[in-house]
Amino acid sequence: MALASGVRFAPRALLRPWALLRGTTLGRTEPAAGGGGDGARRFGSQRVLVEPDAASGVAVMKLRNPPVNALSLELLTELVISLEKLENDKTFRGIILTSDCPRVFCAGLDLTEICGRNPAHCAEYWKAMQELWLRMYLSSLVLVAAINGACPAGGCIIALSCDCRVLADNPKYRIGLNETLLGIIAPFWLKDTYVNTIGHRASEQALQLGSLFPPAEALQVGLVDQVVPEDQVQSTALSEMARWLAVPDHARQLTKNMMRKATADRLLRQRDADTQNFVSFVCRDSIQKSLQAYLEKLRQRKG
Ligand SMILES: CCC/C=C/C(=O)SCCNC(=O)CCNC(=O)[C@H](O)C(C)(C)COP(=O)([O-])OP(=O)([O-])OC[C@H]1O[C@@H](n2cnc3c(N)ncnc32)[C@H](O)[C@@H]1OP(=O)([O-])[O-]
């Protein structure tokens, strides 16, 4: 992690994301609607669509893992690879992260990845979640979350890993860490991310209660930076991006690193132990039962 002026500090080779790819189509490049030169070409994978604009140095990254952008192992892996690709391309200075699925930004962990699975699978999955958080939290790029749908649990963490959040003003688009309501516990690094964003007391309360905040409350508590009408989420995210990009990269990057490094280092120091804790916890019979019941409730709710 070199910290010289302008040098990117995101940790490299924390994992080998390619090794996790199973049957994905990452790397596909296709002309964006409207055509154009290289700057208008979009690329991505089955579950992550990247629309780069070389002229502005900003790429829009869209999650598209229908129906609810649950963070499957494949989605986590494809996100890490897309992020790495943009980090390594000096053309880009910022990413706007948004959803391609209607009404949902991201439903959080894909519960089918940790329910009824063996410990080895849960461990592989958790490492991929850690990896994405580390990459996003320490990214040298400006990340703006354009939250155009519901944003619970792991979805909230993805948003909180960004530098700035714009939420659509729709009472159904609630955001927060609701883990306790599923009978599970946010690990320390999710808790730290929450505390770093909204402070200790508000986190203590919201984490225990599993609070999901509607837009006005999310703004009030500081979980998001702006709440705007749904049709203005993208344009507001672009304006926010311009504000962040007006700052010289090296000064902003080093400041970001100064603010976030201790939190990320805490996980880096105990990644294996954190994985073991997670696996032994979610593989307990009682937790598996809670997760199964929650999934069943979600499936029935649909009907
Ligand atoms: C400890 C670690 C920290 C992190 C913890 C977490 O993230 S824990 C995660 C905490 N996350 C939550 O508590 C969020 C739970 N989800 C929700 O609250 C809602 O789905 C919604 C508000 C996101 C969208 O509402 P909507 O009315 O637009 O959609 P809908 O409700 O009709 O669902 C459509 C389909 O998607 C399915 N499915 C949904 N979520 C998940 C999932 N996470 N996984 C897998 N599947 C999921 C659902 O079963 C249904 O499947 P079916 O029947 O088609 O086979």
Description:
Keywords: Acetylation, Fatty acid metabolism, Isomerase, Lipid metabolism, Mitochondrion, Transit peptide. GO terms for molecular function: delta(3)-delta(2)-enoyl-CoA isomerase activity. The protein is of the alpha/beta class. The protein is 46% helix and 15% strand. The protein contains eleven helices and ten strands. The protein has helices at residues 17-20, 73-88, 119-137, 154-160, 188-198, 200-209, 215-221, 233-245, 249-269, 271-282, 285-302, and strands at 28-31, 41-44, 48-53, 58-63, 94-99, 142-147, 151-152, 164-168, 175-176, 226-228. The strands form two sheets. Strands 1-2-3-4-5-6-8-10 form an eight-stranded mixed β-sheet, sandwiched between helices. A hairpin with a 3-residue loop joins strand 2 (41-44) and strand 3. Residues 67-68, 70, 103-104, 107-112, 150, 152-154, 178-179, 182, 184, 186, 190, 295, 298-299, 301-302 line the site of (2E)-Hexenoyl-CoA.
Distance between the termini: 50 Å
Residue share in β-strands: 5-15%
Present as ligands are: (2E)-Hexenoyl-CoA
Question: Would you list the SSEs in sequence order as H and E?
Answer: HEEEEHEHEEHEEHHHEHHHH
Strand order of the largest sheet: 1-2-3-4-5-6-8-10
Largest beta-sheet characterization: 8 strands, mixed
- Oligomerization: single chain
Number of strands: 10
Radius of gyration: 18 Å
The helix/strand class is alpha/beta
Overall pLDDT score: 89
**What is the molecular shape?**
globular
